[in-house]
Structure formats: structure tokens, C-alpha cells
Amino acid sequence: MLVAAALAVPQPAQAAGFKHPGVLVSRVQLDFVRANLDKEPWKSAWDALQKSSFASLSYPAKPRADVNCGGGSIPDNGCSDERKDAMAAYTHALRWYLSKDARYAKKAIQIMDAWSAVITKHTGSNAPLQTGWAGANFSRAAELIKHTYGGGWSQADRLASKLRTVYLPILLAGRPNNNGNWELIMTDAAIGIAVHLDDRTSFKQGGRDLARPAARLHLPHHRRVDSQSSAGQQVQHQGRDHRILARPDQVRGRPDPGDLPRLLAHRLGPRSHLPCG
């Protein structure tokens, strides 16, 4: 539920591998924010994060084996729960890093372990989109915990296996016939998971997939209004889409803490990991 609206994402250390942590935010960026938590705008964002229900140590995860998601959230069999739990895992991971309070790292691990123990598939017409929403935040949480928490995570490989087998294949398959934002959200998650898994092949495939929806981001496409999408949603989609399209270049670049005044922008909703400015 928190979001790091730092628009810089994974950055490879060299041609052979990725620099960790590197999904959405880097250590340099997080250290910059941590050093400025008593200053605005970071102070207000930090206060909001700490008050969020997603940052509570009593947050209850609700995992299930088959997350079944239909159009318009009908049915919603574990869909909202998975999205919220993934956001909570990432929120706790961020709270751990910024506070260095190990209780929040352990809570993030608890949530991720609960899901990795049971999740086997995503089904229903909205399964690809659901996989993107949840996979993005699970990969961000896993990346932060694995590479910054020294207290141990015995089931890290189990979650990595589920990201590789339950999430990544759906994401890389894409949905070129759906609204362009579907593939962009899915690609965002695929790139994050690939970085976490040190899977350069999947990372490159995810980057190539951006070329398909990019051609459909023109205004005429997004002005279309029908029973499935409103004009307001289209404006939101455009804002998110352009941010995701910037991801591969940001992956290859160096972080600049001075460019991160909204790193801790705190927003609600399943799409809060991709805020519109």
C-alpha cells in the first residue's frame, strides 16, 4: 500500500548480473529517503505509511491455492486478498528498511511464506492482470528482504520458485489483444520478478514486450469509452503506462536521489504501486 514513486527501477551492476536490491527502488534511493525522514515531503509520507493498515504487525494474510478472478471482480475469489497481501508484504519490507526494526521484516516474510506455501495458479478472465498486480509487489518485497535483511529467510527459495512457475509464465505470455495497460502492468511485474530471480533472459523478453503495447498508447486508443472502461480510467492508464515504459531505461541507469521527492508517496488501491502524477 505504500508506494515508492521513485521512477527508477532495477539497475544491473554489470553486464553479467543485476545490482540488488534493484526492483523499483535501489539501496541508494532508500538510504537517501531514510536520511531525510524528518524532512518534507518524506516526513508526511512516512507518517502515512506507518498509520496504514498494510503496515500493521497484526495484518492477517489470506492465502489460497487458486486465485480466481473474473471481469469486474466477479467472481473475486482471493483476488482482492492477494493484491492487498502483496501490498502489505511490500509495505512491511519498506518499513523494515527505513526503520531497521526487524519485526517488520519478519512480518513481510510471514505474509510471503503464507502465500508461497499454498498458491498454485491464477484462473478466470482477469488472471493475467491479477498476476501482474500481485507479482509486482511480491517481487519488490522479496527483493528488499532477501538483499537487506540479515535475520534469515528460510523459505526464500520457495517464494522464488512460485514467482518463476506460477507468475512469470503468465506474465511473459502477454495479452496483446487486451487493453494496452494489461500488458504494461504484466510487463512491469515480469521485469521485477526477472531481476529478483537474476533471470536475464526473462528480463530481456519483458523489455521486448514493451514494444507491443507502446504502439497502442496513442490518445485515440485511450479515448475509447465502452462498458469496460471510462474516460477517467483511460487518463489513469496513460499516466501509469508511460511510467512503466520508462522502466528498462531506468534499469540501465544510475539512481539520482535528487530525483526522488515522491519516493514515499502513499496511495490506496490495487494500482497504487503505479501512481499517476
UniProtKB/TrEMBL annotation:
Region Disordered, residue ranges: 221-277
One MF annotation (Gene Ontology) recorded for this entry: lyase activity
Regions of compositional bias (Basic and acidic residues) in chain numbering: 238-259
Keywords: Lyase, Signal
Cellular compartments per GO CC: periplasmic space
Alginate lyase domain boundaries: 85-211
Keyword Lyase tagged: yes
UniProt keyword Lyase, yes or no: yes
Pfam families assigned: Alginate_lyase (PF05426)
InterPro entries: Alginate_lyase_dom, Chondroitin_lyas
Signal peptide from the UniProt entry: none
Regions of compositional bias (Polar residues) in chain numbering: 227-237
Stated name of the protein: Alginate lyase
